[in-house]
Amino acid sequence: MMFWSLILLLLVPGQFAFADEEKSLEQVAEQVIEPRYLSILKQWNEVGQGNAQDFERVVTPADFLSIDKNSLLSSGESKEYGDQVYAWRNKNSVTIEVDVEEEGLYELGFDYYPLGEGIVPIEGSIKVNGEYPYFESRRITFPKDWKSATNDFEQDRFGDEIIPAQLPIEQWHSIKAEDSSHLQARPLKYQLKAGKNTITLENIRGEMLLGNMYVSGVGTIPTYEEYREKQAGDLTETNSITIEAEHPLKKNSSFIRPVNRQDASVVPYERDKRLLNAIGGESWETSGQTATWEMDVEEAGYYQISLKVLQEKQSGFPVFRTVMINGEVPFEEVESYSFQQEKNWVNETLSNEDGKPYYFYLEKGKNTLTLKGDASPVNRTLFEMDEVMKGIEQLSLSIKRLTGNNQDRSRGWRITEYMPEIEGELTSWADKLEGESEYLLELSDGKESVEIVSLNIAVERLRELAADPDKIPARLTQLSEGSSSVAQLLGNATLDLKKQPLIMDRIYIHGDEKLPKPELGFFAKTKESVLKFFHSFQSNTLATEEVDDDVVDVWVNRPRQYVELMQNMVDQNFTPQTGIKVRFSIMPSEQKLILANAANSQPDLALGISSWLPYELAIRGAAYDLREFEDFDETLAHFSPGAFLPMIIEDEVYGLPETQDFFVQFYRKDILGALDVPVPDTWENVVDVLPELQRFGLNYYTPIAGAVAFKPFQSTSPFIYQHQGDMYKEDGMGTTIDSDETVRGIQLMTDLNTIYSTPLQVPNFYNHFRYSTLPIGVSNFQTYVELTSAAPEISGWWDISLHPGVENEDGEVERWATGSGQAGMIFNGSKNKDEAWQVLKWWMSTETQTDFATTLQIMYGPSYMWNTANLDAFKQLPWPEEHKEVILEQWEHLREVPKTPYTYMVEREISNVWNRVVFDGENTRSAVDDAVVTIDREMRRKMEEFGYMKDGKIVKTYPIPTIEQVESWVEENEE
């Protein structure tokens, strides 16, 4: 056994230092990421750290320390605050000093006035005595309130109601510092020592006016019994008040929106129209989102509150809402009120566990009812699952380092000799998860949900692995890799538990009277179902169907909410100005375009299609050359020249870029900073930092790892173009992937995996980036959306930079990368080509794209980011300015791979070269030479098919389009 240990030590240098390396990694993690608030809270409770009571200090802007006096505004500029205020922006920081008599836990509050109309959240961080006390203090958000422009919903051409514009409410706010993920029911607590303390508020993003800052004792909430004792009285006998939930007074998220429920049990309802008759669903599922309604009662007294709701969370787990009256939680029992899953609408009268209704005291006149999405009841479970997932990630990395990532099932390992604690670790994780499963079962009243089942499967799997730890190297798919692994099960359960969707139809403020039934009776529902069935044959307003000859028919390959907004915009702006009628329809699949063209029933214009499709249709005579329009070259100037390359045949252009992807470098500022690792600018820099990253079990992500077996151009072509290589001969009659420049690019692409040990396969870079195992890498727009909208815990602690490149002879860095997005095209068979061009120009104009992008994000949330291909419009999007600058600069290096009849074979063979070199150990030059033979054989066959060759001889050349060619068209137009 000692012999094999020695062999392993020699084969894997430094392998037995892995325990020390793990210790170092833990030390680095402690430097980089502070403990979570829940851990600190437990420590405070264990040592008996008390909450400060009956204490408040108010610090005015005039007493702020270390501030730019020019940013201190007078009371006349204070937006009616009535005193001096501080203009907080541009990464500025504000420090106050507070003297407390006793050590204890305190809460921090702020008066603020949001500036700007954008939806990028205002974010800051709080340090106490020069340090972040816990990780959550790195990001504190300052929300703004929104309202609908009108409660009288307008209708579109089909009679369906339109979601109104959302407007920010300009007013002063007062809040206490809260966890930005809103997984804590109460405000954050900060430990202050006896004597003087400094509190620093640092700007991360956004602008606002800052009024007074408050340091106060920890607030308390009475029990229901204490609440009733404060104000004597019985249940009122006045008439009930009914509030339509789709008309809130305000909300703290612009995208909490009214929705249509085509259900006769919902009020109001019309069979032949889509009315906005409820609120919530997926737009109101994030913890911390609040909606507020106004209640006007005739007399002061106690009232019951009933909510007509539908809780249809697919996983089957309950959701929670915090209930507030006039801005405050009246008593503890409604701080995290549970709504169990139901198949039908119910009137949920807010009641205790025994079903006895709670009484709420309302003042005479106007009062407010606020409901806040609340995931705090599951916070402890989320915390434990997160800890287990981190442990699994570390264990998996340690095993891979120990075994050299050898998963050969026929090879045996004695893992327990090198990791004697592994069995206890796995068992400990299983015990923790089992306890959380039991806790969740209590929350769901004994009903099993998807989340609970996932935890139970994870527990069972961990116990199986713990029973025979030596087999884990061959069973990593059960632990940390693959769709059914423990890590994946916990990851999915985490996402599901955080979601808190709830749909509301009505709110009843009432006494003891009987409420209207929430659901229609059986016979009424049956009758309505039959009538709706027959009506469905008459109306499908956004389906593709025949239109009149004078209407421009546009098919859009996007979801309904996009198409509805496009139709509303064209009806309100374009048609009144031009007189051109336009009908947008949802295209269920791009394949329908090919079938429709074959049947001569194609639309005039198609939008949202893949950037390669215009070429495929054009080479078969189905697309119209956009250069036939006199002002096309003028339109070119708004787009990246490199985006047109796949849509050009000779001098003809068959598509217009609509959206545009981007590949930039994502990196964790906190982790790279703690490791003192610079942000790489070139691939040479990447190679230089890899040893330091890998020393701590970290690595660098490339898009190659995101592809599975087939490696598309978006992951391979950047290496080729950055080395000044190319894919084709100038006349298009053959490939040049065997040129020295191209082979150098392919060599680097494979060396990153074979020599420098970057990951071969990463199912989800976003998850690894969040959990810090891949703190840096190249990725695209999709990752940007995920990090912006679904990773609040690291907001402000990651950034983007330009794609790594290759330095050329002139000292310039070649950063070429793809940016395939979606495109629009006009059909050759259209009878309304000029009108269709007017629609396409209007749609892709700077003003329209800016309005569409802003409206989409305001109405539907941060995940609905629109990556318009119009560069001028992109500059005006509600994204962080520093990120837009990086993306726009990267787009100067956008270069798509031109299309030829045999392009698919070039793409496939480059992918095959990578596989043969990386997995089979084949020589790169030899693999490329074999690929050239295959590509040229297919080239001759396809060129004969499309008339460029005959009997093996060239009939006419196929000039490959270039960026310079597109730029020359723009220059000619400017002249």
UniProtKB/TrEMBL annotation:
Keywords: Signal. InterPro entries: Bact_solute-bd_prot1, SBP. Residues 1-19 form the signal peptide. Pfam families: SBP_bac_1 (PF01547). Gene3D superfamilies: Galactose-binding domain-like, Periplasmic binding protein-like II. The keyword Signal applies. This is ABC transporter substrate-binding protein. It comes from Sutcliffiella horikoshii.
